[in-house]
Q: What sequence folds into this?
């Protein structure tokens, strides 16, 4: 952390609450297990293959961040903004994504097993081949989301607002839904 202060990546504002500013830097493959990045500005940051196990990313801004193949197991992303973020092949097992903004996010091949996505906004998100087994999607917004080949086995879809593309999608009852396949 000292490095971040000395390089002025962390600055003291008038209220002296530390704000992390890491826009556009490349820290792929970084070891950030249990890092406190709450309210951090991580817009356009390359965190591909980063290890963020149990990281605190509450209210963080990750606009267009590259988190492909990142390990975010048990991370807390409550109220985080991941607009247009790349989370392809990311591991988000047991992650908390409560009220997280994931609109236009790429979650292709992401593992969201046991993730809490309550009240999450997944509008236009690409969840192709995503594993959402046992995920909590209560009151989530999946308007125009692509769930082609996604696995929703035992997922909680209570009060789900909408979802559109279902093709070879495994539903919570383990039935396959093909209602939006091109050949239907």
A:
């Amino acid at each position: 952390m000292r490095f971040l202060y000395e390089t002025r990546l962390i600055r003291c504002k008038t209220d002296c609450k530390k704000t992390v500013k890491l826009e556009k830097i490349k820290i792929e493959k970084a070891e950030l297990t249990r890092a406190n990045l709450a309210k951090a500005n991580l817009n356009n940051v390359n965190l591909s293959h980063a290890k963020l196990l149990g990281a605190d990313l509450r209210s963080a801004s990750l606009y267009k961040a590259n988190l492909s193949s990142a390990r975010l197991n048990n991370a807390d992303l409550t109220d985080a903004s991941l607009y247009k973020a790349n989370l392809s092949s990311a591991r988000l097992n047991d992650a908390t994504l409560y009220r997280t903004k994931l609109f236009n996010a790429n979650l292709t091949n992401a593992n969201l097993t046991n993730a809490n996505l309550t009240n999450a906004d997944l509008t236009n998100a690409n969840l192709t081949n995503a594993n959402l087994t046992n995920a909590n999607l209560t009151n989530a917004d999946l308007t125009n989301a692509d769930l082609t080949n996604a696995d929703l086995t035992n997922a909680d879809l209570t009060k789900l607002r909408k979802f559109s593309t279902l093709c070879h999608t495994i539903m919570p009852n383990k039935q396959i839904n093909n209602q939006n396949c091109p050949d239907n």
About this structure: The longest strand covers residues 141-146. The mean pLDDT is 87. The CA atoms of residues 72 and 158 lie 25 Å apart. The chain has one domain: 19-184.
